[in-house]
Amino acid sequence: MATIWKSTNQTNQTNKTISGTMLSSWSRQQKLAMFASFALLGLLLVVSACSKQSSKSALVAVSSPAATTTPAATATVPETAAEAEAELPAAPVKKVQRKRPANVTYSDANSGVSFLYPRKFSLVSGDKAQPQLSAVGDVPMNFAQPGGTPVATVTLPSSSYPSTDFEAAFFNVNVNRNVSEQECSHFAFVDTRNADDEPVDAEKVKVGSTEMEMTSEFTANVMKQAETQYYHNYENGACYEYVLGLGTEGFATEGGIAHVDRNQVFAKLEKILASVTIKVKPDAVEPEHVAVQTAADNGIASGKE
Fold first, then answer.
1. Is the pLDDT of residue 109 over 60?
2. How many domains does one find in the chain?
């Protein structure tokens, strides 16, 4: 038993020695394997790191041109827009139409007379400012003494009152420096509209803030009629005469023709008369020079303001 135990113990010891030797031998192999594994792993890590670094460099290299080209692209956009705007046709400039005033101011430096009249009316000045009506021809001045000079005449359009017997209407200004203030209150002829065909004395009227002497004249034949109203006032060392005239034609009984409203026509003319102002001048101009200078200096006959 003891020998068997010893053999067994010896056998076990031998086995332990062999096992220890084998373990020692496998341990080295394992170490080599482990070292090889670590080396391979390290190599793989290095390769992987290099690969990642290479990828990053490639990405940076790829993204870098884009980054450099973006400013160039944005820089060319304003130029392209400017070129596009330059090629576009210019927007049309709208002209602002200013409404012209309904009335025009006439002013004569020689006589000092100024007044307003509707723009659609026509005006002549100087020697051509001689009003006419078909019933009487040239409408005469009505000063008590000769020497009157025409200043200006405003005429209504002939189409002012269609389908009526209206022929013409006007507002006229004359000046006479050869009469005194007392003579200015008289007329060469006075109103003859009295039922007994007797003269009627002139009457004193007030136009605006100015007192004037006024008379009228009516002339008629079979087919034509003319009515005139004369106003006198003395200012600036001269006698000023304002004439309001209306002419009609026909009987106004056939073809749908009606009588023109005389009050309406004279109301328009009276508005012009009410706007008259006279600028006082210290030195009077000789009558023979008034008409020539008025026509030359003002040019109102051509429609200038």
1. yes
2. 2
